[in-house]
Amino acid sequence: MAPGPSVPAAEIDRRRHCIQAALQQKGIDGLFIVQRVDLYYFSGTAQSGFLYMPAEGDPLLFVRRYAPRARRESPIRQLFPIDSVKAVPGLIREALGCLPGVVGFELDVMPVREFRFFRALFPAAEHVDAAPLILNCRMLKSAWEIARIEETADVSARTFRYMQSVISTGMTEIAFAAAFEAYARQRGHGGGLRVRDYRTEGYPWHVLSGPSGGMVGLLDSPASGEGTSAAFPCGAGPRPLQAHEPIMVDFGSVCNGYHMDETRMFAIRSMPEPAYSASRAAIAIHDRVLDRVRPGVRMAELFDCATAAAEACGEAQNFLGPPGHKVNFIGHGVGLELVEPPFIARGHSQRLQPGMTIALEPKIVYKDQFSAGIESVFQVTVSGARLISKTPVDIFVC
Amino acid sequence: MAPGPSVPAAEIDRRRHCIQAALQQKGIDGLFIVQRVDLYYFSGTAQSGFLYMPAEGDPLLFVRRYAPRARRESPIRQLFPIDSVKAVPGLIREALGCLPGVVGFELDVMPVREFRFFRALFPAAEHVDAAPLILNCRMLKSAWEIARIEETADVSARTFRYMQSVISTGMTEIAFAAAFEAYARQRGHGGGLRVRDYRTEGYPWHVLSGPSGGMVGLLDSPASGEGTSAAFPCGAGPRPLQAHEPIMVDFGSVCNGYHMDETRMFAIRSMPEPAYSASRAAIAIHDRVLDRVRPGVRMAELFDCATAAAEACGEAQNFLGPPGHKVNFIGHGVGLELVEPPFIARGHSQRLQPGMTIALEPKIVYKDQFSAGIESVFQVTVSGARLISKTPVDIFVC
User: What average pLDDT score do residues A175-203 get?
Assistant: First the structure.
């Protein structure tokens, strides 16, 4: 495993132009970027610090720890080592000639206490939420970014092959997950999945065997599984895998900051009915939705296409969760965060655009019995969908 | 691995009385508890939802997903399944007779956008930061909680024994970490470490070998290591372990929601100077601080005791980081989060109290060369310190 490539200067320039155009359009004079993923996206470094992005001109990178590494990693040339954030207004005034009148923040993630601290540094300014502008830029991936996601897809596909070689009866869900995660880690998977919401926990061990797959729970996902305790009540649990039962593996992985998210159904010896039919139905729905992908198509249309396909397969009742516990989406963007815009969701009027990278995950849950499903990541191209996932779209009976 | 015990009703009652006394003292009528760890602490369930804790009377548990599981896990009897948070003010008025005049929130973690939503639900109220009250309750552990941390300490100690059996030359830092994490997971370690700050990422793979240990970085920790990429620039990296070099393993683990945090020095074949002396010095500092622990002693006094001991060992220059990059603490609380109050930090006037559980981690960093250090978790008793850690306080030459 070689260390990943650093973010090219041209890539950082492209991102800067994207966000500066949005800031100008919204009349925001400057934007503080403090969340680690956003900081890495716009600067190329994830060292401790933050970025000030003016609507015009060069961004300023403020680094608490560790400036020499940030300097090596980031193409941004205006880099200021700082001990205290209180020095920042003075440095901005010095570099840009004035303080901003309207300042943007990532108000979807910035805690109130920190926001009040920043606000006090710019008492005369208006403070607005600029998180949607950031997420809009991040939503459309460049060729360089898609190449990164492809690398993660390679590791994910190799890991799914490895799963087929080690899955066995008596192994617990947790032991199976621990084994394939260790394999993936040695091939570049970084271990820690990133999610934006402070109450959401991303993890790579979503193994739900037999009735574990029928457990509804806290996740905004069709099934949550048992988990390891009431304190962490989702994902793999202590249940031993058995032959002749459906086993769902939803494996999120990350290399060089870019995520993949794939789900496949496994069975040892054979997959019984009705799980086999439900698993085939999920693949049919998946393929039907992919066929419909074109730039300009609305998310709601893809969602409705999926529900119609589930109906046609006779799986409408348990599609996206058992009655009373359904989720309202079949896909989500994937990139520097495991879950990010866009969302293929009921009623969403947003349209597909080339450069979107989306995890498509039609799932079917028979309550207290099992989950069935599939998940692939695809890229929206100028003419349709291209699978980034390299794992065969199939059911693995081992 | 058996599923963990659920939180006893007496424990939930004790916690409720602790926070209600604090609310009454501060004149706060009620507190919204939304962060997952705080919710689990006060309710016994981590299902999706939140808790409303009035200053007097029974708390109300609102559950989005999944009410039947929350009902099984939580001793709280006033449980309301909800689809929308907008229903909450009406339910509070119905249950308690009136709406609160002063409402507390966890403003250290709650994002601005979410806070504004909640605030609009209670437009006539005053909205205050109640996070410190919550963390103060959580800081003092009951016998039940200490028993949970002891269970995690067992898994951690077994994992450190396992590390000694598998460490070998040529294995990368990542591969070594992946191996011992897989071992720990099968014995109850949950995999995902919890930290409170949205920009901090807890992870169990902090393996820093030779010069990796001399890499200063983004962490508020004496050394950060290389990590897997610029996107995740800390912890284990691709460097192969070598014989005759110092290897620091800082392993955070979690069982049933309760964390442990232990560091030991390893070497293959032999540990060279000056790393051996620095590792012995860290142990000497650790023992000196433990000897000084008594209820009533101030944190600053322990910190000063450590720096004096480092001076006496001839390690003052590199203690807590190389010159110019030192951190200002030698210990932090451990519990439902990996890092929580109290902090044994420079100048802190807080006093030790029985029931505190603290990770003590004196570390010494020779820049670009290596890290040396040790970390144990101890409990403050009525008469001194009792080690919860069961891993021998030693250097492991394998």
Answer: 96
A155-188 pLDDT, tens digit per residue, is: 999 999 999 999 999 999 999 999 999 999 999 9
- The label of the residue with tokens 């023992």 reads B287
pLDDT band at A342 (very low <50, low <70, confident <90, very high): very high
Residue B4 distance to chain A (closest CA, Å): 6
Q: Do B191 and A205 touch (CB under 8 A)?
A: yes
- Given an 8 Å threshold on Cβ–Cβ distance, is B191 in contact with A203? yes
Q: Sort strands B102-105 and B126-129 into parallel, antiparallel or unpaired.
A: parallel
Q: CB distance from B324 to chain A under 8 Å?
A: no
The residue count of chain A comes to 398
A260: tokens are 């993949």
- Chain segment A14-58, per-residue pLDDT in tens: 999 999 999 999 999 999 999 999 999 999 999 999 999 999 999
Q: d(Cα A389, Cα A260) in Å, to the nearest integer? A: 8
Q: Which of B342, B207, B319, B328 is nearest to B264 (CA)?
A: B207
CA distance B302 to B291: 10
Q: Mapping DSSP to helix (H, G, I), strand (E, B) and coil, where does residue B108 land?
A: coil
Q: What is the CA radius of gyration of chain A?
A: 22
Would the CB atoms of A178 and B175 count as touching at under 8 Å? no
Torsional sign, CA B215, B218, B222, B223: negative
Does the global pTM surpass 0.95? yes
Give the angle A122-A127-A128 at the CA atoms, nearest 5°: 155
Kindly state whether A7 is in contact with chain B, defined as any CB-CB distance less than 8 angstroms.
yes
**Chain B residues in contact with A224 (beta carbon < 8 A):** 65-66
A321 touches chain B (CB under 8 A): no
CA pair distance A372, A208, nearest whole angstrom = 10
The two tokens of residue A396 are 């693995």
CB contact under 8 A, A219 and B186: no
Task: Out of A47, A112, A203, name the one closest to residue B218 (CB).
Answer: A47
Task: State the smallest CA–CA distance between residue A325 and chain B in angstroms.
Answer: 8
Residues present in chain B in total = 398
Query: Do A368 and A211 touch, CB atoms closer than 8 A?
Result: yes
**Dihedrals φ, ψ of A341, to 5°?**
-60, 150
> For residue B363, what are the β-bridge partners?
B373
B119 vs A: CB within 8 A: no
Among B69, B71, B34, B30, which Cα is nearest to B49's? B34
B273: number of CA atoms within 13 Å, CB side?
Answer: 1
Cα A107 to Cα B111: distance, rounded to the nearest angstrom? 6
A127: β partners: A103
Kindly give, in sequence order, each residue whose CB lies less than 8 Å from that of residue B47, ignoring residues fewer than 6 positions away.
A217, A218, A233, B63, B64, B65, B66, B67, B69, B70, B73
A-facing residues of B in 13-72 (CB < 8 A) are 34-36, 40, 44-48, 65-66, 69
Q: Which of A186, A254, A222, A202 is nearest to A318 (CA)?
A: A222
Among B112, B144, B145, pick the best mutation site for testing chain A contact (most A Cβ within 10 A). B112
Closest chain A residue by Cα to residue B202: A192
Residues of chain B with pLDDT under 70: 1-3
Q: Which pLDDT score, from 0 to 100, does residue B3 have?
A: 58
ipTM exceeding cut-off 0.95 for this assembly:
yes
